[in-house]
């Protein structure tokens, strides 16, 4: 075991913007002594790491910690790097041309725009022109390709992927191989995964899983991983290396203006900022002041929920403390109790609980959680949005109707269960019923039964607002439509007015 890894972990985490307190807590959770951690910080701060690291590691680390816990630290290093580090290949950043003079520097994580086939192909060709080593996982054609110095090294079929709309659906994006094991045991599925390559959190590329008795798992959807035949997984494994970029593509988030055309009948004037548009082809039925930045209040909680499900195990239990018992419309939490992240999500989305908005951040910390919200907004394309807390109480939580359409689109195509949960329609078969009974649904709109999900915001400062997603009949076609209103005195009434307007004034052609 290379004991320099501890110093490298602390140094890289610091360079990525992780605070000393958070680094220390992660190390304590992994079994390190506080005195050892503080000593290591002191060495690094004095610039004496190269001289003292051997002396420190041999005199200050117990054998149990230096061997066992360092494995956990290396795993945490990979996760922290995945959250914070900018995408690099060797010493060069992966760049993509953006117009004539600009370039995009990719951050590792989900990139919804990569679900656009033309943009994805452009990114891929840019990587090839840079002679990059990378893996391409095409979840539409179910093919996985490995490129070496920009040249195709191998192509294999994908045997299975995560079910669309499930908790474990893999979004399009740029990831990287964070760790590799010839055989990885999944404590979640209680199976062994041969030729395992972890590329983000709970997502892996691996061979066909098998149980302890050697029997393979049944055919069907995976728990979010990309499954390959064993011989194909081995060939990919031998070409891959830790840190190699993984480019994931699936053709669902498509801007295709050719599939359906519309004939507008009239324009509906309105004094509020609003937007009604088709989520599948981006056709705008009606809009007014849709680029105006407005206070969005509790609509913020949709982004809170999105970050929670992408970065925290939903089965994780959170210990409720007194500061979490905040002022909210329907109090539910009590200090000293424990509740799962999944149940907190129900309170957050259905009852707009400010208590849940605070409690759900505890595994990551409030500041880091809000930072992830803003990072996610940037990758989705919400260029004119800013989040400053998780409940939407602070007036500097701002966005535009256009930006919120991008959020609705991402949720609809990648995290649809968040929308379903906002209406109390999520599938909890694998998790059991909520510990909270008789939850109120504050998002329902009387007379509109085709609502998939969304979030209402009632605030005197915001004058009300709402993001709502529907499956509605436009002529003879059933279409996914998002309606967003901001700065409304009666947001549900205005959403219904726009809903009725679309149905009455447009036909699919």
Automatic annotation (TrEMBL):
Keywords: Cell shape, Cell wall biogenesis/degradation, Hydrolase, Peptidoglycan synthesis, Signal, Transferase
UniProt pathway annotation: Cell wall biogenesis; peptidoglycan biosynthesis
Active site, per annotation: 206 (proton donor/acceptor), 225 (nucleophile), 298 (acyl-ester intermediate), 301 (proton acceptor), 352
GO cellular component labels: extracellular region
A GO term for molecular function: transferase activity
Binding site for substrate: 455
InterPro entries cross-referenced by the UniProt entry: Beta-lactam/transpept-like, LD-transpeptidase, LD_TPept_cat_dom, Peptidase_S11, Peptidase_S11_N, Transpep_catalytic_dom
Pfam families documented for this protein: Peptidase_S11, YkuD
Residue intervals passing through the bilayer: none
Coiled coil: none
Domain L,D-TPase catalytic: 133-249
PROSITE patterns reported in the protein's UniProt record: LD_TPASE
Domain of life: Bacteria
A biological process from GO: regulation of cell shape
Protein family according to the UniProt entry: Belongs to the peptidase S11 family.
Descriptive protein name: L,D-TPase catalytic domain-containing protein
Lineage: Bacteria, Candidatus Yonathiibacteriota
């Amino acid at each position: 075991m290379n004991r320099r890894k501890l110093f490298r972990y602390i140094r890289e985490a610091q360079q990525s913007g992780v605070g000393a307190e958070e680094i220390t807590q992660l190390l304590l959770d992994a079994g390190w002594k506080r005195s050892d951690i503080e000593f290591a910080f002191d060495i690094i701060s004095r610039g004496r790491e190269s001289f003292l690291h051997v002396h420190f590691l041999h005199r200050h680390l117990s054998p149990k910690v230096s061997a066992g816990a360092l494995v956990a630290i290396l795993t945490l290093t990979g996760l922290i790097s995945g959250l914070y580090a900018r995408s690099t290949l060797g010493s060069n950043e992966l760049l993509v041309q953006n117009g004539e003079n600009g370039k995009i520097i990719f951050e590792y994580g989900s990139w919804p725009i990569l679900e656009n086939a033309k943009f994805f192909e452009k990114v891929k060709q840019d990587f090839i022109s840079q002679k990059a080593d990378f893996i391409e996982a095409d979840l539409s054609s179910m093919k996985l390709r490995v490129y070496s110095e920009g040249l195709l090294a191998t192509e294999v079929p994908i045997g299975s992927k995560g079910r669309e709309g499930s908790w474990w659906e893999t979004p399009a994006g740029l990831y990287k191989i964070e760790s590799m094991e010839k055989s990885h045991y999944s404590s979640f599925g209680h199976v062994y995964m041969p030729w395992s390559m972890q590329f983000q959190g709970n997502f892996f590329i691996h061979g066909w899983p098998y149980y302890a008795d050697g029997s393979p798992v049944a055919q069907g959807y995976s728990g979010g991983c990309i499954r390959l035949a064993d011989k194909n997984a081995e060939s990919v494994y031998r070409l891959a290396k830790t840190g190699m970029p993984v480019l994931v593509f699936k053709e669902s988030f498509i801007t295709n203006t050719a599939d359906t055309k519309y004939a507008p009948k009239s324009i509906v004037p309105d004094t509020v900022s609003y937007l009604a548009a088709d989520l599948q082809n981006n056709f705008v039925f009606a809009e007014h002041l849709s680029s105006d930045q407005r206070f969005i209040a509790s609509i913020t909680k949709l982004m809170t929920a999105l970050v929670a499900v992408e970065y925290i195990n939903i089965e994780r239990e959170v210990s409720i403390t007194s500061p979490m018992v905040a002022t909210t419309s329907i109090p539910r939490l009590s200090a000293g109790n424990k509740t799962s992240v999944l149940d907190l999500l129900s309170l957050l989305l259905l009852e707009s609980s400010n208590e849940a908005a605070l409690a759900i951040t505890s595994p990551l910390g409030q500041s880091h959680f809000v930072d992830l919200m803003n990072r996610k907004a940037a990758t989705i394309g919400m260029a004119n949005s800013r989040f400053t807390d998780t409940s939407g109480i602070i007036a500097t939580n701002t966005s535009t109707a256009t930006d919120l359409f991008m959020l609705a689109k991402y949720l609809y195509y990648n995290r649809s269960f968040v929308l379903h949960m906002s209406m109390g329609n999520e599938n909890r078969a694998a998790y059991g019923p909520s510990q909270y009974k008789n939850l109120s649904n504050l998002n329902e709109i009387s007379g509109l039964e085709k609502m998939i999900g969304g979030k209402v915001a009632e605030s005197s400062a915001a004058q009300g607002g709402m993001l709502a997603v529907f499956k509605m009949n436009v002529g003879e076609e059933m279409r996914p439509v998002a309606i967003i209103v901001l700065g409304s005195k009666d947001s549900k009434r205005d959403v219904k007015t726009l809903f009725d307007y679309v149905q009455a004034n447009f036909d699919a052609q």
